[in-house]
Amino acid sequence: MMLENAWMALNGYTTLGKDISADMEWIKGAVRFFDSYYRNETKRLTGSELDSVGKLCIYPANSIELLVGAKNPIEVMAALHRLCDALTKLPVNLVSTDEKSYFANLLSILPELPKGEKDGKSILKPAVSWEKVYNKWELPELYAAWPYRLHSVTRPGTTQIAQNTWDLLPQDRVEKVTRDFSWMPVLVNMAALGNTKEAGRRVLDKLGNFNPQARFPAFFGPGHDWVPDHNWGGSGMVGLQEMLMAADPYGDGKIYLLPAWPTKWNVDFKLHASQQTVIEASVKNGKVVSLKVTPESRRKDVVLNPAFGM
User: Fold this and answer.
1) Which terminus of the chain has fewer CB atoms gathered within 10 Å of its CB, N or C?
2) Between the CA of residue 21 and those of 39, 65, 85, what are the distances in Å?
């Protein structure tokens, strides 16, 4: 969770212009921990700090709550890739030149995300290997789609392997993973993959959830936890926003508009994007009828889903 919190803080910096100077030590420390701790662990287990091909080895670890005794869990690897890259791009008052060199070197020795093959198709794996499966509600594979956007609509041409992963999930996990209860980010993941049909179905189900015992309509649940379940509504709202707009805070600078929005749905919205940009838009009858980008200089970076027109 330290890596997730670090990524959120860096998102706050580029999206809202938040002052994170007081946070930089723990952000950098969270990344350094994985380098330092697992070099020592690997040396203790094998006699060398790095693996046989000169890469950092994250073992033993967990993959969220799904796997125990995991090697190179995907959500950790995705986080380290994105954080190391982002830290090399921050101004020197936040990350010194020497520190940038350190994070660039660490990035160069990170292994790739764990991948495999099923039914002749490439898929993402939750880890290279593991010793025990614990909680089958978890879906670490799609952390690569969101929040880390390595296989996402913000990187055109990268989503198929993540979609394959979803389509070919092990049968013993499907029954739980596909429910999208409570905190589960399946809606968000479908939006991040540009899967409009699935995202549209799920956002209605997720935000339409209501417990008749509750006094207010927005008292979601019970799912995994309690009523009112703020996680349920929170993940639902994030998914709704991702359907409307996706922007990688440390990517190509593009703002992907309506990546998973059904053409039959009208909407008016105002959302914050990376580089302190605000997007205001109105969609009517499958067309974008108004679009305001602040600052106007960022308008050139808006990439509209071709299913819509202006």
Assistant:
1) N
2) 28, 32, 18
- Structural domain range at position 13: 1-155
Query: Strand 132-133's sheet: what is its strand order?
Result: 61-63, 67-70, 132-133
195 — pLDDT class (breaks 50, 70, 90): very high
On whether residue 192 sits in a domain, the answer given is no
Residues 23 and 33: their CA atoms lie apart, in Å, by: 16
pTM to 2 decimals? 0.95
**Separation CA 37–CA 48 (nearest Å):** 13
Tally of domains within the chain: 1
Q: How far apart are the first and last CA of the chain?
A: 41
**C-alpha–C-alpha distance, residues 30 and 108, integer Å:** 18
- 114 falls within a domain: yes
